[in-house]
Every structure is written in structure tokens, then in C-alpha cells.
Amino acid sequence: MYTFSSKLKTFSFILMIVGVLGIGYSFFTAPKDINDVEAILASQHGHHGDAHAEGAEHHDAKDAHVNTAHSEDAHAAAGHDAHDAHGADAHEAHDDEHTHHLKHVLQQLQNKPWAGVYVAALFFMLISLGALAFYAIQNAASAGWSPVLFRVMEGISAYLIPGAVIVFLLLVLGVMGSHHLFVWMDKDVVAHDHLIQGKSGYLNGPFFLIRAALFMGGWIFYRQYARKVSLAQDEASDNLNFKKSFKAAASFLVFFIVSESIMSWDWIMSVDPHWFSTLFGWYVFASFVVSAVTVIAMVTLYLKSQGYLEYVNTSHIHDLAKFMFGFSVFWTYLWFSQFMLIWYADIPEEITYFVTRIEHYNLPFFGMVVMNFVLPVLILVNTDFKRLTWIVVLAGTIILCGHYIDFFNMIMPATVGDQWFIGAGEIGSILFFMGLFIFVVFSAISKAPLLAKRNPLIEESKHFHY
Amino acid sequence: MSNKVIHVLYNDDDILMDAVKQTRAAHHHIEEIYTPFPVHGLDKAMGLAPTRIAICSFLYGLVGLSIATAMLRYIMIVDWPQDIGGKPSFSFIQNMPAFVPVMFEMTVFFAAHLMVITFYMRSKLWPFKEAENPDVRTTDDHFLMEVSVHGDVDQIVSFFENTGAVEVKVIEKH
């Protein structure tokens, strides 16, 4: 049995408290109205001449209108006219547009603390979902190497319950209008947007929440059931529970692949309701499953270093590191496939997605390819390196940071646009959810023995070597 | 200088593994072992150095990547930068996504083929090469261990007869 060390517990509480302070600070400092925004923009453009600043804003406004989902063609056209004509009308149009621009930036800045919380909440919830999917795959495949790690995976999947509840609450708040992360939830925008109107049969509040509840309910149900039969197998005298867990895993995987696809359209792709991509669900899956395998490896290494996992040897770590390597390449394959197809054909309604990212998120967008592909591949390609604790932890840290940035890149451009910054709100959210994650996961791990006793494959797994 | 060797035949890979361990413990030098199929862990038991072919392959892959990059840059950007369907041929990086499929395939092609050729050269395998197996049964169901002989032949023969061998032969090697 693992006992949750008081040090780690304190650490998780400190993370949560610091995180709450950061989140609170970001909400507190978010601008309340247009005047605040004007002051913020003035200080941003302070080093330019006044006239220059005016012009720069004007250009920004035009860019932003073209690139954001809820731009209205009429406005962009009006802006253009105003720019070309130098008559008296032009001044009026310019003022109009200036206020419009300020309103737009205000919304982006007000979205910022929400988006920071949403990205982190989603990221950590999907990590535990990824661990659950990986666990189900191991069960359905009757893997011989991994049963000694089942309790670790079950522990990580325990975060799914609080994590899903938090994400669901954020979605409910969006439908209720407390935040504006999902532009299609805004009735005024939809009223002027034929594209979103055409999708409102799918993208509407009640149906959106029903889908979310259904998927989260299904995942949590499988998690609780798999945990129950796994613990029951320890005490049983036959292998009935093992068979149940096999069947449950196989059924869950079918449900998972459908719900995961739809989940990625709903919670991530719909922040850009004008844009769509067919392989998006797979792409999101690759991103969180590699993070999940990394977290499994890191939690395993931590428990091993504390002397709790007697039968875990370097071959198990080697296998996990191989999965980290393989899924990193898989993620890159999908990232590149999505990017290259859209870049190559260059269809205006699709390419805006990458134009905003390359223009305003250049470093995070390409930096994550280095962090999620180049570094893991170079570090983990060596067999001997895959057995070394510090190498796996190093590569794992890079992968986790890289995939946080991946989710950041998926959500932020549509919600905060060029006003993004990784500051108190974003880091606070990461710390808060990391603290919660550590607390929930290690509490769950301390509730059951770390070795699944009567699993029919446990002997093979104990003596696994590669 | 004696050039006698002993050919010890076994008919089971587990017995062979035990025999290899005993032989190593008794400090007899194993010249070669002939098996009909890969025996897991035999290289470790014999104390063979690990292969470096993966390192070769990695380097060959880098060669392939460099060749593909240089080739595409020269052809598409330097030599004749045409406008083909609006693709930006002004610099390599601007048109790079279109080159990635070729760069990837060339990397794999070089890594795989040069590694295989390296394997053939290092293992001295080629068409019309004369087969080297000392006993035809080693390609079917027998395992043969060739040990160099130093000192008392009878003593060595009796040592190997006690390791579960089905046959022990003393051979004069030319």
C-alpha cells in the first residue's frame, strides 16, 4: 500500500493556493470596459508617435476583423472605405471602427482569464482520459507487460471525475453567457452570421451540454466500473472479473473513439466555428494520449523512486518511453498532415486558421513542433537512454510543456487573438490544476494496493524484460 | 600450434544455453555457434559485443535527409525557381512543407537500404557465396558449438560430453 506522503500533499496544496491566486489576479486585472482597453492599448503603443499609434491600431483592427471568427464582412468593407476615402464621412467611420475595435479587444482581454483556466482544465482532464484509454487498450490487448502498472493508470484516471466536472461547469457557464470563449453561443453574433446559423442544428447550447454530459458520464462510468472489477479480481477465486474488465475495455474503446472525436469538435474546434478539419479528433487524441503516457511514466518513476513498485523494472520504463516516442511521432504526423494539406491547397476558409497562428503565435506554434517532435525523437531514439530515469523525466517534461502549448494554440487564437500572453492567469491555472491533479491522483493511488494481485497476466508482467 | 577444433552438437536450445554458460565458466574459447533459428539471449550468454547497426542506420538517415534537402533546394529554389501553382519558391523554408514528404521518404530509404547493405557486408553475405555451415543438420534441428582446443583433447571431449551433447567431434581445421 502506498501512503500519500505529507510532503507531496502539502506541495499539491501550495500549488493549488498559488494557482488560485494567479487565476484571481488575472480575473481581477481584466479590463472592465472600453476605457480600460484604451489605456492598455495606449501603453502598448506608447513608444510610437501618437499618429503612428493611431495608424497601427487601424491596421490591427483590420487584421483582427479579417481573422476572427465573428468578423462581419460589412465592417471590414466599411473600414476599407474609410481608409481609402479622406472625406468628412471617413472620420466618422474611423471613430466607429475605433470603438468597434476597442470592443473587440475588450472581449479578447475579458476572455483571457477564462481561456487560461479552460486550456489548463481541459489539458489535465484529457491527460486522465488518455490514461484511461491507454489502460483500456492494455486490457483489451491482454498486454503482458503492463499489469504491474494498472494501479498507477487507475490512479491517474481518478482525476477524470473532478476534472470532467470542472470542464462541464465551464461549458455550462459558457452556455449561460458568463464567458465568451465559444462565439457561437452569443446570440447577437449568430444573428449576423449565416455560417454559424447553418450549423446551429448541431452547435446549440442544450444539445452541446447533453453531448458533454453523455460523454463524460460514459467515461466516468467505465472508469468506475473498471476500477471496481479490478479491485474485485484481487479478492476473487476465479477470473470472472478479469473477463468482465476485458469486455468492458473493448466496449469502452468503441465508445471512446466516437465520443473523443465529437468531444474534440465540440470543446476545441467549435471555438473557431467557421473552421473545420476532418482529422482534428485524431490530432487531439494523439496530443493527449502522449501526455498521458508521459504522466504514467513519470508517476511510475516517482513511486518507484519512493520504493513502492517492487516489480517495475527498467524494461517497463523502456516500454513506456517507447510509447512516448511513438506517440510523439504519431502526433507530429497528424499535426503535419493537417497543416500541410491546408497549407498546400490554401483555401481561404481553411487557411485563416493557420494564418492567425503563424502571424500572432509564431513562436508557440513552431516551438511546440520542436518540443513535441524534434527533442523527444532525438532524446528517446536511443535504447539505453529510454531506461534512464533522468532522461525519461527530461523528455517527459518537454513533452508535457509542448502539449500544453499545443492546447494553448488550439484555444487561444480564437478566444484572445493577438492579446495572448502566458502570464499569471495561464501559469496560475496550470499550477492550480497540477496541484489538484497530484492531490486526486495520489489520493486514489493510496486507496488500493499497488500490485493487482490476481490478474492472470501479473506473473508475466512481474518478470517482463526486454 | 594446433589448429584442432571441437564440434559439439546439441538438439535443444535450452541445453545449448546451459552448455554455453558452462563452457564460458570453464574458460574454453567458443569460436562459433551454428543454430537453425535465433536463440533468444545466446549473444549475451556468449558475451558478444552489442551490434552498432542501429547507429549506422541513424547516420545513414541523416545522409538521406541531407541529400533530399540539398537536392530539393537546388532544383526548386536555386536552379529554376518557377511559380508552380502559386507555391512560394523564394526561399527553401517558405516552400518546405511541400518538400517534407520527399525528405521523409529519402531519410527512410537511405536508413533502410544502407543499413541492409552494411549488414550484408559485415556478415559477408552475397549471391554465389559458398555456404559455411560445418554440418547440414544445423540448418534443420541441431545446434553446433565450435570450440578451439588447447591442451588435453580427451579431457576437453569428456567435458563437452557432460554438457548434454548428442555428438562431440574433433576436427582438424585447415
Task: Explain what this protein looks like in three dimensions.
- Chain A: This is Quinol:cytochrome C oxidoreductase.
- Chain A: Keywords: Membrane, Transmembrane, Transmembrane helix.
- Chain A: Residues 68-99 have a biased composition (Basic and acidic residues).
- Chain A: The chain crosses the membrane at residues 12-28, 115-137, 158-182, 202-222, 248-268, 280-303, 323-343, 363-381, 388-405, 420-445.
- Chain A: Residues 68-102 are annotated as: Disordered.
- Chain A is 77% helix and 0% strand.
- Chain A is mainly alpha-helical.
- Chain A has one domain (6-30, 111-462).
- In chain A, helix 1 packs antiparallel against helix 17, helix 2 (34-44) crosses helix 5 (88-140) and helix 14 (348-360) crosses helix 15 (362-380).
- The longest helix of chain A has 53 residues, at 88-140.
- Chain A is elongated.
- By secondary structure, chain B is of the alpha+beta class.
- Chain B folds into two domains: 4-36 and 138-172, Alpha-Beta Plaits, CATH 3.30.70.260; 52-123, no CATH class.
- Chain B has helices at residues 13-25, 42-46, 53-79, 96-122, 153-161; strands at residues 4-10, 30-34, 143-148, 167-172.
- Chain B has a four-stranded antiparallel sheet with strand order 2-3-1-4, with helices on one face.
- In chain B, helix 3 (53-79) runs antiparallel to helix 4 (96-122).
Short description:
Chain A: This is Quinol:cytochrome C oxidoreductase. By secondary structure, chain A is an all-alpha fold. Chain A has one domain (6-30, 111-462).
Low-confidence stretches of chain B: none
Largest sheet features of chain A: none
Q: Helices and strands of chain A, in N-to-C order?
A: HHHHHHHHHHHHHHHHHH
Question: What is Rg of chain B?
Answer: 26 Å
The dominant shape of chain B is rod-shaped
Structural class determined from secondary elements of chain A: mainly alpha
Return residue spans of chain A where pLDDT drops below 50 for at least 5 consecutive residues: 48-85
Share of helix of chain A, binned: over 70%
User: Whole-Å distance between the termini of chain A?
Assistant: 27 Å
Strand content of chain A: under 5%
Task: Look at the structure and give the mean pLDDT of chain A.
Answer: 89
Number of strands of chain A: 0
Number of helices in the DSSP assignment of chain B: 5
Straight-line distance between termini of chain B:
12 Å
User: Total domains of chain B, how many?
Assistant: 2
Report the count of strand segments of chain B. Answer: 4
Quaternary structure annotation? heterodimer
Mean pLDDT of chain B, as a whole number?
92
- Specify Rg of chain A, calculated over alpha carbons: 24 Å
Biased composition (Basic and acidic residues) (chain A): 68-99
Protein name (chain A): Quinol:cytochrome C oxidoreductase
Region (Disordered) (chain A): 68-102
Keywords (chain A): Membrane, Transmembrane, Transmembrane helix
